[in-house]
Amino acid sequence: LYEMLAMEQQGVQIELYPLQRERTKVMHPEAAAFVERAHFQPHFSWPILLTQLYFLLHKPLVYLGLLWTLVRANWGSMRYLVGALAFFPKSAHVARLMAAEGIVHIHAHFASHPAAAAFIIHRLVGIPYSFTAHGSDIHRDRHMLREKVAEAAFAVPISEYNKEIILTECKGQFRDKVLVIHCGVDTQLFQPRTAPTPHELGQGPFTILCIGTLHEVKGQTYLIEACRLLQARGIDFACHFVADGPDLAKLTQQTAQAGLTERIHFHGRVTHEEIVRLLQQTDVMATPSVLSSDGRREGIPVVLMEGMGSGVPVVASAISGIPELVKDGESGLLAPPGDAQALANALEQLYKDPALRQHFGQAGRDKVLNEFDLNTNAAILASHFAAEKSQ
Predict the structure, then answer these.
(1) Phi (first) and psi of residue 314, to 5 degrees
(2) 10 Å Cβ neighbour count for 229?
(3) Collapsing DSSP states into helix, strand and coil, what is residue 84?
(4) Above 90 in pLDDT, residue 265?
(5) What distance in Å separates the CA atoms of residue 283 and residue 238, rounded to the nearest whole number?
(6) End-to-end Cα, the chain, rounded Å
(7) Which H or E element spans position 232?
(8) pLDDT at residue 42 tops 70
(9) In angstroms, rounded to a whole number, what is the distance separating the alpha carbons of residues 163 and 321?
(10) With the CA atoms of 70, 73, 75 and 81 taken in that order, what torsion angle do they form, in degrees rounded to the nearest 10?
């Protein structure tokens, strides 16, 4: 969302073609305008059926060859194969719509189904495409990744870690078109606080903030265990989980069993403005990411960038691309993933050392300003769009 807003500020005209419509009770206000003008399409309609007949009549070899490529490249991955075939009719129809609209470049977020849709559109009508590879979209399943990179104008891993995964899958090919561009945050919106936190004023507990979908890959269960250890050590703290997700019931049960109901609070999904407000009152942000049982892992969590951009000291896991943002002992603290003891030790260290919290807060802010600024990185991406358009 915020990359699209930043791209528009760079003068890039954006048309949004979602693969699916999400129904949600909480929406960032900035998203409303995109939703209103987005080109939503059903999974099946008479126009979509007519599009299939159109390509069968006018480009039968391309159309059937594309179907074969999708089956061959995704064979062995039920999720990717079913997804590619399920989205194929809609993607073919969107190809005609994009060609009629004069779309000159497609950028897909995630190397999974969105990049497959871009691949389909490119094959059918020739519009060049690129895609951003974030995390589990390449960590868990890499079927068809080589084909997507081969035909893309360029691919954008959000970390050097992701870049090496892509190049390994491509056996070292296409190095010149795999370009690391970090995700970023609006450093004008996420500003360091100008007043002490309630804890620093002696008016409240040490506040720990954890933002992210309540899911195994986020590692919240280890933070709850770390909180149990902190309570046993006599530390006065409050831990706030922001977001919802499939693990809510399990995590609330764990909280109750640990006797932490008065200390741990679950807020559900909140707006961007509320996240900004919470960060202003937070003493430390914790992001205890882990490798999930089905192979998922984080890329570089944007919430870490938001916290560091706000001058909040962070404790995170040493996994995937996170060490490219958080330098252990320099701009924050890293703990081994899944190690509640190490996580508790890091939190206790920051609890006891206000000067270290201040140092990490400033170092984190500097790191985000230098390498993870939304507008700077959007300008880099826009320059690659412009270069592609001029060819």
Answers:
(1) -125, 150
(2) 17
(3) helix
(4) yes
(5) 10
(6) 28
(7) helix 220-232
(8) yes
(9) 10
(10) -40
Please state, in angstroms and rounded to a whole number, the distance separating the CA atoms of residues 364 and 330: 8
Look up residue 168 and give its two tokens: 């390994």
What 3-state DSSP class applies to 288? coil
Task: For residue 333, list its beta bridge partners.
Answer: 315
The 10s digit of each residue's pLDDT in 8-17 is: 998 899 999 9
Task: Please identify which residue in the block is written with the tokens 């970023």.
Answer: 184
Helix axes 60-74, 46-58, angle to 10 degrees: 110
pLDDT tens-place string over residues 112-162: 999 999 999 999 999 999 999 998 889 889 999 999 999 999 999 999 999
Sheet holding 106-109, edge to edge: 106-109, 129-133, 154-157
Question: Are 210 and 242 in contact, with CB atoms under 8 Å apart?
Answer: yes
Complete DSSP assignment for 290-330 = ---TTS---SS-HHHHHHHHTT--EEEE--TTHHHH--BTT
Q: Which of 247, 250, 256, 260 is nearest to 344 (CA)?
A: 260
Evaluate whether 148 touches 131 at the Cβ level (below 8 Å): yes
In the numeric block, which tokens belong to residue 56?
A: 């069968």
Which residues have C-beta within 8 Å of that of residue 63, sequence separation ≥ 6?
A: 52, 55, 56, 92, 124
pTM: 0.87
Tokens representing residue 295 in the block: 């192979």
Token duo for residue 35 = 């939703």
